[in-house]
Amino acid sequence: MDNTDFHDPYEFPISWDVFHLNTVKLAEKLMAKGPFKGIVAITRGGLIPASIIARELNIRVIESVGMKSYTDGRQRGSLRILKEMNRDLVGDGEGWLVVDDLVDSGVTAKAVKELIPKAHMATVYAKPEGQQQTDTFVVPVRQDVWLIFPWDARVVRVDPLIMLQDNLEKVERSTHKEGEV
C-alpha cells in the first residue's frame, strides 16, 4: 500500500518546455509594461528566464544581483547579497525590469525592491506569501509546493516494471545455491 501523505508539502517537476512556455507568457504580459532599459536578473534562478525575456523583448542590457536565502537544500537562512549590481547603470531602477524564476516568501524580492525601488519586478512563478512583492507573474503556485526546475533535475532512463521484476528474480536465483532454502 502507498503511504503517501498528500497533506505534506510536495514536489512538482517542471520540464524545460513548460518553463520556456511560461516564461514566454511572462514576456507577453511584460510587453505592455515596457519598453525597459535593461534587465536585472536575480541569480541564479532569474538568469534563464532573463535570457528568454531579453530575447523576446529585444533587450540587450542584462545586469545581475546575486542573492542567497537558502543555506542547504530547502532550509531558509538569512538573506545575503553575494554580488552587487552596477548601481551607476541601474540607478534607482526606473525603466528597469527585475526577473526571477519564483517568488516564494518574498524576502529576496523585497530586498531587491529596497535596492532599486522603481524597477518592475517580474517572476514566472509566485507563491501566495510572496505575490505582493512582485508586479507581474504568470503562474500562481501553492505555498506548500516545492518546484523542481529543469536545471535542478536529471532525465534518466527507467526500465519498465516487468523488466525490473525479471531482473530481480534473476538476481535472487543466482544468489541461492541449489538445495539452500
Oligomeric nature of the chains: single chain
Rg over alpha carbons: 22 Å
Task: Calculate the mean pLDDT score and round it.
Answer: 87
Strand order of the largest sheet: 4-3-2-5-6-7
Structural class: alpha/beta
Helix content: 25-40%
Give helix and strand order, one letter per element, not per position: EHEHEEHEHEEEH
* DSSP summary: helix tally: 5
What portion of residues belong to β-strands?
A: 25-35%
Low-confidence stretches: none
Shape call = elongated
What's the N-to-C terminus distance?
28 Å
Query: What characterizes the major β-sheet?
Result: 6 strands, mixed
List keywords for this structure.
six-stranded mixed β-sheet, 8 strands, 5 helices, 28% strand, 181 residues, alpha/beta
Give an overview of the whole structure.
- Strand 2, helix 2 and strand 3 (about 60-70) form a beta-alpha-beta unit.
- The protein has helices at about 15-30, 45-55, 85-90, 105-115, 160-175, and strands at about 10-15, 40-45, 60-70, 75-85, 95-105, 120-125, 135-140, 145-150.
- The longest helix has 16 residues, at about 15-30.
- The strands form two sheets. A six-stranded mixed β-sheet has the order 4-3-2-5-6-7, sandwiched between helices. A two-stranded parallel ribbon has the order 1-8.
- The chain has about 180 residues and is of the alpha/beta class.
- It starts with 9 loop residues before the first strand and ends in a 6-residue tail after the last helix.
- Helix 1 (about 15-30) crosses helix 2.
- The model has no long low-confidence stretch (mean pLDDT about 85).
